[in-house]
Amino acid sequence: MKLYNIAILGATGAVGREMMKILEERNFPVGELRLLASARSAGQKLCWKDRELTIQEAREDAFGGIDIVLGAAENDIAKKFAPAIVAAGAVFVDNSSAFRLNADVPLVVPEINPEDAKNHKGIISNPNCTTIISLTAIHALRDLSTIESIVASSYQAVSGAGAGGPIELEAEVEALRKGETYEPKVFQHQIAYNVIPQIGGEAYMGYTSEEMKLQNEGRKIMHLPELKVSCTCVRVPVVRSHSVSLLVKTKEKITVEAAREAIAAAKGCKLVDDLANKSYPMPLDTSDQDLVFVGRIRDCLISDNALNIWCCGDQVRKGAATNAVQIAELLTK
Hints:
The protein is α/β, with parallel strands linked by helices. The protein folds into two domains: about 5-125 and about 320-330, Rossmann fold (3-Layer(aba) Sandwich), CATH 3.40.50.720; about 130-315, Dihydrodipicolinate Reductase, domain 2. Helices cover about 30% and strands about 25% of the residues. The chain has a six-stranded parallel beta sheet, with helices on both faces. The chain has a six-stranded mixed beta sheet with strand order 12-9-13-16-15-14. It has a two-stranded antiparallel ribbon with strand order 3-4. The longest helix has 15 residues, at about 165-180. It starts with a strand and ends with a helix.
């Protein structure tokens, strides 16, 4: 079996550490695993399998001999090192949003458009976590009818804001229990016992940058340039796993029964849809695994050719780290 030399750019963050875990879980054929992070993290050690690996400083000359770089860093870091990665002959599978909408960079969810990965020029982008979870939930409907529009509301876990999100939620709950005050640092407002209907800055006609991603990225992934999406993204006091309510309008009518059958058979999905027995997707059930749970499938009461769907998925795993490793797996085939 051929072995591949892998580097993780941003290895000390939550997504980078999850990438390490998933490479091991999926028995990825790793030769060397090179962990790259900022200068302040260089020299620290992390355990992987039976090895103790030393974190190296991310520099332009750090990618020699590497086949695939898994990016788990912010946009500015991805942009800074992308030229050096490509020049070194490696393929950059990037989890940031830096290159997602570039015409010459494939944007890939392996269950939906794996063939697009073949057209890379050294960079492949990982979509936004909410985009991945939503499209994985509904992509099987495309085989039944063209998807024309989506109305979405996302309920996004605090860990989606990074490692500081859960810490802030826990600290606020503890402070409130003691009758003390806590000044939010990660979120715009108190998140404990609250929801915040803003993720990202204003991008277009009152929609935030996070809300526009589902339309812009969905068009590219599903090859539906006319797809229309209206989205509202909300931060909720849940530690892990994003939930999304979707109203999916299709060209032809899809029955609830046909939708359930298609989604149950779809790659990456698990149908959990039994209202009578209180069985439906929830964040607690979907955390720390890779399937998108889909349920509450029902006819829309205001549009004949539309379905209401509820889905949940782990945004750190399938919404980020696992999807990137799956793309890397495509490169080995």
